[in-house]
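Input chain follows. Return structure tokens only.
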Amino acid sequence: MQIAGQASRIAVLLAFILTLGACQTSAPHHQGQDLAGTTSPSSSATHVPGGVLIVVAAVTAPDQPGSVDLYRLDGSRAAHYSLEAGSGVFAAAGSRIFFGRGDQLNALHPDGTVESLGPLGASDIRWFASNPTGTSWLWSTHQEGDTTTKSAVHLGAPGIQGRVVEELTAAGQTLAPLMWTNRGAFIEAAPVGGHGGYFPFGRSIGWLLVEGSVHRLDPTSGRVTPVPGSPRCAFGDEASDNSVICFPGGSSVRLYAQSGKVIDVALAKPRFTIAAEAFCAPAEAICTVAGASGVGNGMAYPNGTPPPEQYGTDLIRPDGSISRFGPDGTDPAMGPQSWLPDGQLVLWRRPDAAGGAPGVYVLDRSGRGPFIPTKGEPVGYLG
């Protein structure tokens, strides 16, 4: 998943569009190791880290060098890779950290090797999503005409040429892969103009603000299936029991059960003055709901600096029961991948958020776990 733009306290004017020009990159280096596998005098031989690894990318200007760090679940750093100026990271899954180089897609592996995955095309890249194993991926391109926008969703995998699996030509709409989870691939028909107000959940590497209709796409057959509630209720995710969680507007969340039952749940204010980021555990019917108080809205302070935004996360179940979770000032760190395979939940405190130092929390269900101090942006996990 990848977008261009600032991480928070911004007016999102273009719905976080990624252009290829913002993500041109070159091969990374592992603490002085060159790509031929020999090390510089200042470094030792590379040890390939194993197990589940959390990927955190530095957020830098396109003309500045960047970096990627890999962390173990105990909070220790397993590897650090430097990225040359102009680098951009799309997503992380399986054994691949996806990044662009010109119009080419590449993958960085935990041992520092780089794999070429083929061309992305010359059009603007609207969005990117990998399947949970990192073995297939979707991205979308779009071209704006005088009255309509032509967009397409492409499917890629190692060793095959990318192919178009869905197309749309419409006025003011463009296709955007939101996520690809165990429940399927979800595609939004997003407004071209994007969001024109304050959206505190914006990221440099993240997910699109859901403002259009969302459907499930079978990338193999191209079959499209409607999602319950969309577009009247902004899609969040689908849980393991096939229930759908979405946001009908205001400080509330809605649950569509597979039986057809609909449950509306009021969210606490001011913690959920702005509600978003519903992501469901892969093997359990429980989802996150994130909220922000809205105090960080810079548009309310045209002549001054707003206070830090106040974030919070709750957990909600299909019966509508909801409970507060995690430290103050945190929200889900990595979209659907915020839920790790063992059921732990990864939250983060943004660099400009209230509540304490910025960084990443790896928490068990009791809310306990290590803290990783970092101003970087969590991307996903490997393993």
